[in-house]
Design goal:
2 domains, 7-stranded mixed beta sheet, 14 helices, alpha/beta, 4-stranded antiparallel beta sheet, about 40% helix, Aspartate Aminotransferase, domain 2
């Protein structure tokens, strides 16, 4: 079966997600918090349940049947993801606890040995805290400096300023592919091209991109790409790091323990080959197996068809929100994923979120782990409606009506 072979059928898609049948406060759930964590299709739940029920064993070292079955499923998941992002070589795909751990791994194992006091790390103003704090910690440890790539009033990255910001002391550029707070889709291939002209490696936070668009790491050209399964309809607590082979081979291990070793004695240790070198200890086996099934699910649905559906939802929601008096949309980039962050004049976002929950509408309120974005737009927080492949125009209309009722109550 080719990826995206079938046309997008929203009814069929929704039937795959049991949580969407939930009733909240007497109302059918309208789930607009996919950017925080997506719901899971039944096939992913079944894959994880099936592992625990029928092949629960540790992987790689056992010779009995269950161990071999578990190992086969685990490594098949790696192959699915390698193929899905066009990594090219399975040694380039390291399982992590998520995007956050992937960023920290690169910061400590790749960049820290290469940094000296006064060296520079470039990050953008729209980053999630997970792609800011690890670099700040690294700067504190080494005396390096974190520099910021600015954004404009539309919430777009000022890519035209990159050449001026990069100096002969720049050692890393870390940038988000899709902003969780703004929905902005950054031109990663262009950014990578500029950085590589100055021999600067690029790490991409791909957590929000993976559920919304086709990601081809070879086409992007990035040095590292970080992924979280739970953003893309998979399990929590599992993710992956893609890295160029020459980087991963040169990096020392970050965690020590079982599996990442070939030979241990009190005189010294010989480390294992990639990717095992970075996968110490018993992993989240059920999570990885669920992750593999998530990728198979996305291949069956067709991420391109889902993205087209989500774009129509974004256009419809944006039009509806612009007609509500007092609403200010934060993040109006020309190229956006299905995320609408907004404020309502005179109303705190937390109050909006609480009252909408009484209507069965789940949204996210707060700073979205992107405080510098809030500071730039001079707001304490926003309300965020983030959509996935399972949302509908009818849900948008119902949620907007609920928002208007809440507005009338509060204003």
């Amino acid at each position: 079966m080719k990826q995206g072979e079938f046309s997008f059928d929203i009814g069929a898609v929704r039937r795959q997600f049991p949580c969407l049948e939930t009733v909240v406060n007497g109302k059918p759930l309208i789930y607009f918090d996919t950017a925080a964590t997506a719901q899971r299709p039944q096939c992913v739940l079944d894959a994880m349940d099936g592992y625990y029920r029928h092949s629960n064993a540790n992987i790689h070292r056992g010779v009995h049947t269950l161990a071999e079955q578990a190992t086969e499923q685990f490594e098949a998941a790696r192959d699915e993801l390698v193929d899905y992002i066009n990594a090219g070589d399975r040694r380039q795909l390291v399982f992590t606890r998520g995007t956050t751990e992937a960023v920290n791994l690169v910061a400590q194992a790749y960049l820290r040995p290469r940094l000296q006091a006064g060296d520079e790390i470039l990050v953008s103003h729209m980053e999630h805290h997970s792609n800011i704090v690890p670099w700040q910690l690294l700067a504190e440890q080494t005396g390096a400096v974190v520099k910021v790539i600015p954004i404009n009033e539309r919430g777009e990255l000022c890519v035209d300023q990159l050449t001026e910001l990069i100096t002969d002391r720049t050692r890393m550029l870390a940038v988000v592919h899709v902003s969780n707070a703004l929905g902005t889709i950054n031109p990663i291939a262009q950014i990578v091209n500029i950085a590589h002209q100055h021999d600067v490696p690029v790490l991409v936070d791909g957590a929000q991109a993976m559920p919304h668009c086709r990601v081809d790491v070879q086409a992007l050209g990035c040095d590292f790409y970080c992924i979280s399964a739970h953003k893309m309809y998979g399990p929590t607590g599992i993710g992956a790091l893609y890295g160029k082979l020459e980087h991963l081979e040169a990096m020392p291990p970050w965690h020590g323990g079982g599996e990442m070793i070939r030979y241990v004695s009190f005189e010294g240790t010989e480390y294992n080959d990639l990717p095992a070198k970075f996968e110490a200890g018993t992993p989240n086996i059920a999570g990885v197996i669920g992750f593999g099934e998530t990728v198979r699910f996305l291949k069956r649905v067709g991420i391109e068809a889902a993205a087209e559906h989500e774009h129509r939802l974004l256009q419809h929601l944006t039009t509806q929100m612009n007609e509500i008096a007092g609403v200010r949309i934060i993040g109006t980039a020309a190229n956006k994923a299905a995320v609408v962050s907004f404020t309502l004049e005179g109303v705190h976002p937390h109050d909006l979120g609480t009252l909408l929950d009484h209507e069965g509408v789940a949204i996210r309120t707060g700073h979205h782990c992107a405080m510098p974005v809030m500071q730039y737009f001079k707001v304490p927080a926003t309300a965020r409606m983030s959509m996935g492949m399972y949302n509908t125009v009818e849900e948008i209309d119902s949620a907007v009506q609920s928002l208007q009722r809440v507005r009338d109550i509060l204003m």
